[in-house]
From TrEMBL:
Residue span, DUF4503 domain: 270-657
Species annotation: Helopsaltes ochotensis
Name of the gene this protein is made from: Spidr_1
Gene Ontology biological-process entries: double-strand break repair via homologous recombination; regulation of establishment of protein localization to chromosome
Any Pfam family matching the protein: DUF4503
Entry superkingdom: Eukaryota
Name assigned to this protein: SPIDR protein
Length: 658
């Protein structure tokens, strides 16, 4: 809050008010009696109670006095005494636990409001109120009633009535809502199109109105029509997973263990008023289902029913969610505005972005999302805006969502001590034609950090393990010079059917891929090309091991029949010509980093020329170090482990691109 502003002053006033009320109630309980000062006290007897807009409304009759010898039932009521409408907040009502025939003492500073064209005055500011128990009979009744919760009638007032939306569309909508018949939601069949259309005519189009009308307990007998903007998976926090067969209801069953994949299918939906909500559906048995859900559901309208509010989150609590919402704001078409006639032309550019969002979930194991997959794409849908990597590197600001199509050249799992493998961050080094053809000053390869919260499908993981692939990164996060795949980022092997790519160069790569050469701007956790001259060898760290020439297994054993031969357990065969692999650290002198010590860790048989050199060095034992020094090396593809200034050293590792 702005210091000294109206909001901060109001917040302090509310805090003082709550403290005063709590202190007053505590004092009443401690004294165990009604405050003796009766000046200005309003004494009423409750005749009827109902709830409206979360406020408890009590129709009361004012009493001249409440004799200490009489119970509330026996209190004399004069027919000429005025009738009052007393308003209690939800907190005050929960404290009083009032029922009809109860006598309430309302202490100052209560206020009386006289409404035009209304005969019954309204009593407000009733925070300092106390229920009077004047006899053993009434105390016994209180103990009996305290065991059962009283059901209070709720007067539901729609937003259309509140804002007096009296145009034709709202009249039709109100009539259809009044005549709505509750029905179970199922996935629509082709033969049920007529029934489906009639059912949709009775749905609401405001998420906020449903929340206001139904409250946190959720809604079962009404539906809300929304547009699915995004489909993605989130790591499941609850230990429940669902089983589905065709169009049969989904039944949630406890998970005995949390073995992956334990992810929850989620929808980011938007209603006709522009309000967003995240709907968390059933857990998926396979992460490969996410691609088909994206293709089938994104951009389509659907009806929600049987939802309950899991959380009301704000921008400060869910930066990732609101960064995705901001990428979809403002709406591409005019949205409805509460309190205004829908016939008038409404601007969408000046609308403030949403400041809160409801997280919804299903109430039970039944299907609660009805998607009309045969319907055309909604005009409210905003497909991902695809950029090339050169455009993304020029985006100003932080926490901006971006989508792009790139070639994955190399992947590396970050090693952190004590962190399980499935919770480690992974780096994907990607490029596209715009980076490969860029002039000096723009990197030819960029790193994409994939956090553990980003759910990857098995298909993506297997594809990246097999070789270099074109991958579509949808709704990645850009900020502080980094591209990060976080929660709600989706990686796909196929380009979405709907995407906008105005001005982006999406042409495929032609020719070999080039990396940036090592220079003074090279940073740690990057890849580069290296050339130089060998100036030293670290013999103390050199080691080698034999591997199977068929499967590459590095754990060979001696053959039981012939101890002079090696045996591969995976192939179940004798290895007659093992492949020797090795690790060695060499020191290079590089013209591009003349002042730095460049240390390269060489793994396996990567470069033929260097491999021959190292084979002579390690195994033939017929070399002299002096014969190795001065040899030219390059170009080597390397991963940069660290770059330090004191001492001035660059540590690299030779890699193989996918």
């Amino acid at each position: 809050l702005c210091r000294g502003g109206l909001a901060e002053r109001l917040c302090r006033l509310q805090n003082r008010e709550r403290s005063a009320i709590s202190f007053w109630r505590h004092q009443c309980i401690s004294d165990d009696k009604i405050p003796s000062d009766k000046s200005g006290v309003l004494i009423v007897k409750i005749l009827e109670i109902f709830e409206e807009c979360t406020i408890q409304v009590a129709i009361c009759q004012q009493l001249e006095q409440s004799p200490a010898t009489l119970s509330p039932e026996d209190a004399v009521i004069n027919a000429e005494e005025p009738i009052l409408k007393v308003l209690f907040t939800r907190e005050t009502a929960a404290h009083l636990k009032s029922r009809p025939q109860d006598v309430i003492h309302i202490y100052p500073p209560w206020q009386k409001l006289l409404l035009q064209n209304a005969d019954v005055p309204v009593i407000m500011n009733t925070y300092f109120s106390q229920k009077v128990l004047l006899s053993e009979h009434s105390e016994a009744r209180e103990r009996t009633y305290g065991l059962t919760k009283m059901l209070i009638r709720k007067n539901i007032i729609s937003l259309a009535q509140t804002f007096r939306l009296d145009d034709l569309d709202d009249k039709l909508h109100q009539e259809s809502s009044d005549n709505q018949v509750p029905h179970a939601l199922q996935t629509p069949n082709k033969g049920d199109s007529k029934h489906h259309a009639s059912a949709l005519s009775a749905v609401n189009d405001s998420l906020l109105e449903m929340v206001e009308r139904q409250g946190a307990v959720g809604w079962r007998e009404v539906q809300v029509r929304v547009v699915i903007q995004r489909v993605y998976c989130l790591p499941a926090r609850e230990g429940y997973r669902s089983h589905t067969q065709g169009n049969k209801p989904l039944c949630a069953t406890p998970v005995a263990n949390s073995d992956p994949p334990n992810v929850r299918l989620c929808l980011l939906v938007q209603d006709a008023y522009g309000m967003f909500s995240e709907v968390q559906l059933q857990s998926l048995s396979s992460t490969d289902d996410i691609e088909q859900y994206c293709r089938r559901w994104e951009g389509k309208s659907c009806c929600l029913a049987g939802m309950k509010i899991l959380q009301r989150t704000t921008r400060g609590r869910s930066l990732g969610l609101f960064s995705l919402i901001d990428s979809l704001w403002p709406p591409v078409v005019p949205v409805k505005v509460p309190g205004q006639s829908q016939d008038s032309e409404m601007m969408t550019t000046n609308l403030p972005p949403p400041s809160f969002c409801y997280i919804l979930t299903v109430q039970s194991g039944e299907i609660h999302v009805e998607v009309d997959e045969e319907e055309q794409i909604s005009n409210l849908y905003q497909p991902p805006a695809v950029h090339d990597l050169k455009e993304i590197l020029r985006i100003d600001g932080c926490n901006k969502r971006c989508s792009f199509w790139a070639q994955v050249l190399y992947r590396r799992l970050q090693s952190k001590q004590g962190v399980p493998v499935d919770q480690r961050e992974m780096l994907l080094f990607v490029t596209d034609s715009t980076l490969q053809n860029a002039v000096h000053g723009i990197p030819k390869v960029v790193a994409v950090s994939v956090t553990a919260s980003c759910v990857l499908s098995v298909e993506i993981i297997e594809a990246l393990s097999a070789g270099s692939r074109l991958v579509f990164f949808k709704d990645a996060l850009w900020g502080n010079g980094r591209i990060i795949c976080v929660e709600r980022t989706v990686l796909l092997l196929q380009k979405p059917l709907l995407c906008s790519a105005a001005g982006a160069d999406l042409s495929e790569l032609t020719g070999p891929v080039r990396l940036d050469e090592l220079d003074s701007t090279t940073q740690a956790s990057s890849v580069c090309a290296l050339r130089g001259t060998v100036v030293g060898v670290n013999e103390s760290t050199a080691f080698s091991w034999p591997t199977c020439n068929r499967c590459g297994n590095g754990k060979l054993e001696l053959c039981p029949q012939d101890r002079e031969l090696l045996y591969c357990i995976q192939c179940s065969e004798v290895v007659t010509t093992p492949v020797l692999k090795m690790q060695l650290e060499v020191f290079l002198r590089c013209p591009s980093r003349a002042q730095s010590t460049v240390k390269v860790k060489v793994w396996h048989e990567i470069s033929v020329a260097l491999f021959v050199l190292l084979t002579v060095l390690l195994f033939l034992q017929t070399y002299e170090v002096q014969s190795v020094l001065g040899k030219e090396v390059g170009l080597l593809n390397c991963y940069v482990h660290s770059v330090t200034s004191h001492p001035n050293c660059v540590a690299l590792e030779e890699i193989v691109l996918l």
